[in-house]
Amino acid sequence: MKPGFLSASKFRSAALSLGLAATALAPLATSALHAQTVPNEEGDLNLPANPTIFGKMDPNVRRATAVVNGEIITGTDVDQRLALIINANGGKVAAEEQDRLRMQVLRNLIDETLQIQEARSVDIDVAQEEVDDTFNRVAQQNFGQSPAALEKYLAGIGSSAASLKRQIKGEMAWQRLLRRNVQPFINVSEGEVREQLDRLKAAKGTEEYRIGEIFLSANDENSAQVKANADKIVEQLKQGGSFVAYARQYSEASTAAVGGDLGWIKLAQLPAELANTAANLSAGQLAGPIELRGGYSIIYVIDKRQVLTADPRDAVLSLKQISINFAKGTTEKEATEKAAAFAAMVKDIKGCGMAESAAARLGASVVANDQIKARDLPPALQDTILRLAVGEATPPFGSVDDGVRVLLLCGRDDPKVSTDPSFEQIQGQIEDDRVNKRAQTYLRDLRRDAVIDYN
Which CATH number covers residue 259? Predict the structure, then answer.
C-alpha cells in the first residue's frame, strides 16, 4: 500500500470493517446432523471388532455449530469471524479469551441469521450487486486497496471476502427492515424538539462528550458471571484490544453495530452512574465495568468538546507528508544517519512548493491531503500541527520499521463559530434513539421465538 495518512477516523472505520461477521456455508444434509447412536438398556454399545465403514467422510466438510430455523451456521463461519476479531486486536488475544470470543461470535451469527430471515419473511432482500458495491467501497475507503487485494488480505488472516459480505448483507437487511416496520411508527412532537433546542442553547460553552459504550445485560442470577466477563473485556482493552471490535462482538446495546459509538452527547443524557464516571475521564480513557440498572457498562471517552463553540481541532488542513522507508536489514546506525540527512533536508524546505523537488533528491515519497481535520490526526500530532504556520513542518517522527516522515502545513481553514443545530437534526437524533430502542426489543422477540438446534 502506498504511504498515506492514518487518521483517527480512518482507523476507526478500518476497525469497524474488521469487526464484520462470517458467512454461512452451503447447508449440509439435515439427516447427517441429527443421526445418533443409541446404547442398549445395559449401556453396552455392542460394537463389532472389525466394523465396515459405509460412506466416505470428507475432512473439508465442517459440521454445523448451530441450526437457526433450519439455516446452518458452521464451524468455518465461526472461525472466519473470529479471525477478523483477532486481527482487529493485533493478533494479541489469549487462548482463554479466544474461547470466550468464539461463543460470542456464535451468538452474533445467530442474531445476524435471525435478522436476515425476518427481513426475507417480509420480502426484503439485499441484491448481491449492492453487497459487492459496499464491499468494494470498504476496500477502497478504509484500506486503500482494490477489492481483489482486500480479498487476498482477508484470506491471509484466516478469513474471507464472503465473511465480510455476509455481515454487510445482514446489516443492510436489518436497517431496511427497521425503516419499514419500526421507523414509520416513531413519533417525535414539535414540543420535544423545541425543548431539546432550548436545552442546547442554555448549555452553550459547556462540555459534551463522544463516548463509546459496551453494555452487558445482567439479572440477579447471572450478575456475578457477567461482571467477571466484563472484567476480562476491560483487561483485554487495557492491553491494546480494539474497543470498536469488542463493542461489535460483546455489546448488547443497539449501538454495537457502530462499534458502541454513542455520538456527541451531554453527560445529563447518560444514566447518573455513567455520567459521574465520564466526568472524571479525559479523551482516550476507559472506565468500567460500571454497574447500573439491568447490567454493566464499559465506557470509553473518544473525544470532548464544548457545546455550540468552535473547536480549533475542527480546522480543515491541507498537508503534504514526506516520508522515507528503510530497506529490510537496515541497522539502527544506518537508519539514524539517513534520518539525520532527512531532517536536514526538511529544514531547507521553504514552503510546500518545494516538497516534491526536495523529496526527489533524497528518494523520499510525497502524499498530499487537502481535506483533513486536525482532530482526525493522531492525538500526539494535533497540538504540534495547530502550532505551525503555513509552510512549516513538524519534527521528523517514525521508526526503523515504519520509516521516518514529516508533515508540511500547506493551508488551514479555521472553523467558524458553531451554529445551533437545526430542528431537523434534533428531530432525527431523537427518532434514531427511539428506533434503536425498538430494534433491541425486536431482536429479543426474534430470539425468543426462534428454533435453534446446537451441535
Answer: 3.10.50.40
Q: Which residues contact 64 (CB under 8 A, 6 or more apart)?
A: 28, 33, 72, 73, 74, 75, 455
C-alpha 9/C-alpha 35 separation (Å) is 50
Q: DSSP code of 393?
A: B
Q: Would residue 89 count as lying in a domain?
A: yes
Q: What share of the chain is helix, strand, coil (3-state, %, to 5)?
A: 50, 20, 35
Would you give the DSSP letter of residue 329?
A: T
What's the pLDDT tens digit per position in 106-150? Answer: 888 998 899 999 999 989 888 899 999 998 888 877 666 788 888
3-state secondary structure of 299: strand
> Do the Cβ atoms of 406 and 394 come closer than 8 Å?
yes
Cell of 241: 484490544
Based on the fold, state whether residues 28 and 168 are members of the same structural domain: yes
Cβ neighbours of residue 265 under 8 Å, at least 6 residues apart?
Answer: 208, 209, 210, 211
Round to whole Å and give the CA distance between 79 and 86.
Answer: 10
Q: The whole model's pTM is what? A: 0.51
| Same domain membership, residue 252 and residue 105 | no
As a whole number of angstroms, the distance between CA 434 and CA 259 comes to: 18
Would you say residue 22 lies in a domain?
yes
**Residue 304, SS3 per DSSP:** strand
Q: By residue range, what is the domain housing residue 272?
A: 207-306
SS3 206: coil
DSSP secondary structure code for residue 374 in this structure: G
Confirm if 181 and 118 have CB atoms less than 8 A apart.
Answer: no
